[in-house]
Amino acid sequence: MSATFDPRRVMTDQDVKTISRVEELSYELKIRDVMTARVHTVTPQMQIVEVLDLFREKRISGAPVVEGAQMIGLISLEDLIRAMRRGNGHARVSEYMTTDVITVRDFEPVVTGLEVFARTGVGRLPVLDEHGRLAGILTKGDITSGTLRALHEDFQAEEVRRYRASHLFEDIVSDRTSLILRYWIKPRDFQHGGQASSDIKRALLRLGADAQLARRCGIAVYEAEMNLIIHTTNGGIIKVEIEPGQIKMSAVDDGPGIPDVELAQRPGWSTATEEVREMGFGAGMGLKNIERCVDKMTLESTVGAGTRLTMKIHLQPRQGFNGASVSHSERATA
Amino acid sequence: MTLDELIQVVAGQMVTRRQPRPIEIKGGCGADLMSDVLAAIQPQAVLLTGLCNPQVVRTATMADVAAIVFVRGKQPTPDMIALADEQQIPLITAPFGMFELCGRLYQAGLPSLETSLMNDATA
Does domain A13-146 correspond to CATH entry 3.10.580.10? Predict the structure, then answer.
């Protein structure tokens, strides 16, 4: 049912629409990042035959016409042919150049260049800097190679990040290595609710955790994060301790505390306000969800003093982080 | 089902940017209660919901949701769109109600990706 991508097929404009890291890059990359900065220019006083020699020698098919620091026109192979056909090889560039030149600015995003190419059908665009001076020239080829270069850099950067992270536990030698992440959660901050959890999930993936493990941790810690946001007086702290063989997560706050811990864990029991329920939370399923996702959950609370929720996931060797050696006796104690 | 097929079936409009990777939608889940989503949804599902706040996007991130369809033409706010772009989750708004949209997708061959209580497996 789903369309497959055939690498042998020539890429059409339609396809380009659906490849969006490229599209994204066309907004992120500036024209100055991809343009050719070393431009061969001509002067308006030059003769047509001289320009023809220059074009032949440099293997170019067009050049900006510059007077002083100002670009005043563009001359292309086509203009030269027009002059030669009339036998005007010794005419001045100024007589045959195009003065009505479409330009782009070097600080504009690449997508602007693409739009101008598509709209006007021209083959090259002179690029001006913020002062209106000629800064370079842009062709579609420049955009293609510039985008590919950026994609390649992107890819390498992510590879290096992943490599470094996944070898963390292998490269650093100690009797017991762990990585601790801490997040301060503010009460009633629904706007940022889930930020810490998504950071945690991403960190685990970077460290080489498999998708299912990252998902289990993500869901458990998200429910815990929302609990801190919904119920606490002063917010709380989420702590994640990552070791080669296990992940320990905790959510700790200093109040108000839960009067009946057993009741709080009963599915469907909730003390959430109508406002919280309207946000899709407070259905009394949070702790149940957490319990389902982790190997061991402990909830301790004292009214007036605060609540401590701890969650533990044991890692199987195949789920663990690269280089992690987990003994079999260590797991399965859940 | 591809994202384009989904958009067509629900007669929806995508409000987020196009994503770099092709998105495959393996099934669906309809819920307004985010805890239900977290409890029941399996990875790579489209989430249909009437709830329209940033927590929907957060929930989707945690639960590996492939795309979100807002029912009854609900429009996500700019901060939701920004968050969804960052998390690479397409947001679609569709002009029908939950029942109609679930029905359309089911009829188009999209299975349910909600774990039922009859075989409640862990996430």
Answer: yes
